[in-house]
Amino acid sequence: MSNEFPGKKTRAMLERGIPLFRNGLKFDVEMQKAGRRGFRAARQIVVDKAEGDFIWDLDGKRYIDFQNGWATNPVGNAHPEVIAAVHAAHQRYGFHYDHPLRYELAEKLLAIMPDKALSRFNYEVSGTEAAEAAVHLALTYTKRRYIISFSSSYHGNSIAGKLLSGLGGSYNRYLEAWTGGVIRAPYPYSESMPANMSEEQYVDYCLWYLDNHIPNSFVPRDNIAAILVEPGLAEGGNWIPSSDFVQGIRALCDKNGWLMISDEVLTGMGRTGKMWGIEHYGVVPDILVVGKNLSGGIEPCAGIAARDEILGDNDAFSSGSTFAGTPAGCAAGIKTLELYERLNLVESAARLGRIASELMSSWEQYGIVRQVRGNGLLLGVSFEDWIVARAVRDQMLQHGVWAISDREDAIRMYPALNVDEAVLREGLAIMHNAIRHVDEHGQNVGDSPGWPTGGAGF
Ligand SMILES: Cc1ncc(COP(=O)(O)O)c(C=O)c1O
Questions:
Q1: 65 is in which domain, residue-wise?
Q2: Residue 131 CB–ligand 1 contact under 6 Å
Q3: End-of-domain residue from the set 342, 358, 376
Q4: Is 406 a pocket residue for ligand 1 (Cβ < 6 Å)?
Q5: For the segment 169-198, what is each residue's pLDDT rounded down to a tens digit?
Q6: Prediction pTM value
Q7: Does 137 share its domain with 150?
Q8: Torsion over CA of 154, 155, 161 and 162, rounded to 10 degrees?
């Protein structure tokens, strides 16, 4: 195997994508820009094989997988038991809408909700659809028209998903005329506080904004249906909100008759070392959104759980994608939940998360690092800016660790909940070296021109 990175076969495959996929037309421009910055654009991997804690690229290079199917593989890559369960469901049912597995999985899922009050379930195909369904359910149940969501939040890539998300920049360009029903509120990032506020003051301000500024300046409080919140701002950079903030949201919802929707697509099912991210805060949402991990890393499955009276009798709420709750998706979910129990995955995530946080605790000493964050295996490090983050990610890739930095100033890691402890330690040691290297040598590191992230859009 040559030391060239990415290797020849990977490069050839990426080149094959230039005329096929979005943004191919600006490939040359992006390469020139990367060259002018002296920064080797982030490399991309084309996965040739995935197994357990590792993936291999087309050139046979092995990587520790902290990207983890974008946080969808709670038991590592290609778990044989989940594959077998999915295969059996395919063979027995093919695809049909109604089948016993949708009943079985719903019962099992409702049994592990953060509270028995969340007693009804509705299947969706993806996290995006599930977040949208939660919003539609809240609007139709309350007969109100507005939803509050947060800056830097992410709820999906459909049109409604984009409108509900707070990623800013060009994310919503040309959708401006569609944003009518969403009010975005500030999220109290612990990293940089405005006007030298303390974190407590900033949280107070954000809660004041919800309870005063929005009703006084935008929309009467009795026309707000719900607050949509991630108990850990995942795609927005793995931020961990304070108890005061999350509990404050619950209190405001109770006071104003607003529903609280906890979007647990990424924080749910053990990622934070508890089954649900919201359980860190001792409050119960009215609607909970689940996806990603439920697939067992093999077959999409998602949905919402809600209180009986919200989902039990609501003719105005409509839902029902053809592929919501497929036999194979439900089989994946059932087997995955069985593995959660057998392998103690939630406890495992909590334990491994403590080890990771301990290993990462010294990294704020480096000038390029702004903040190290962790809650269970929801792990993130933020940097001076996204170019530095990319440079660190690039170094990590070259040395065999795959993590996420999606044109953001952070690198996010989502190891499997049962990642081998030695692999976790090795991956974080490589990341530590990468940070040290970029801190010492600057962002102009690397030994060959790289590739913009073509498939994902530069
Ligand atoms: C909190 C949250 N909600 C919704 C989504 C969308 O899920 P999907 O990509 O499965 O549609 C994501 C995806 O990252 C997410 O993190």
A1: 8-75+345-441
A2: yes
A3: 342
A4: no
A5: 777 889 988 888 999 999 998 887 898 899
A6: 0.94
A7: yes
A8: 0
